[in-house]
Amino acid sequence: LIKRRVQDDRDKLYNAVRRGDLLAVQALLSSNVSWKETVKKYGSLVEIAKANNRETIAIYLIDQNIR
């Protein structure tokens, strides 16, 4: 059950970054979603944001020291 929640949260964070949903990204990160687990599966969140033309998300992640 815990492993499945980590997978679900990881996917939610990735999707929020990809679609440019800053409020969702902030909410997920503030609820202690492991961004490192998301990076393990999908790669750099900043690069994902940039690849999807989500500069605001990329800047936010960099400001939060999340790569």
Description:
The structure is a single chain. With 67 residues, the chain is an all-alpha fold. It has five helices and no strands. The chain has helices at 2-19, 22-30, 35-42, 45-51, 55-63. Helix 1 runs antiparallel to helix 2. The longest helix has 18 residues, at 2-19. The mean pLDDT is 91.
Give a summary of the structure in a few sentences.
It is built from five helices and no strands. It has helices spanning 2-19, 22-30, 35-42, 45-51, 55-63. Helix 1 (2-19) runs antiparallel to helix 2 (22-30), helix 1 runs parallel beside helix 4 (45-51) and helix 4 (45-51) packs antiparallel against helix 5 (55-63).
Characteristics:
67 residues, mainly alpha, 0% strand, globular
Compile the SSE list and pairings.
Elements: H1 2-19, H2 22-30, H3 35-42, H4 45-51, H5 55-63
Helix pairs in contact: 1-2, 1-3, 1-4, 4-5
Query: Count of helical segments?
Result: 5
The biggest beta sheet is recorded as: none
Radius of gyration: 11 Å
- By DSSP, the count of extended strands is 0
Question: What is the N-to-C order of secondary-structure elements (H for helix, E for strand)?
Answer: HHHHH
β-strand amount: under 5%
Average pLDDT figure: 91
Which regions are unreliable across 5 or more consecutive residues at pLDDT < 50?
none
Rough shape? globular
Helical coverage, percent range: over 70%
Alpha-beta classification: mainly alpha
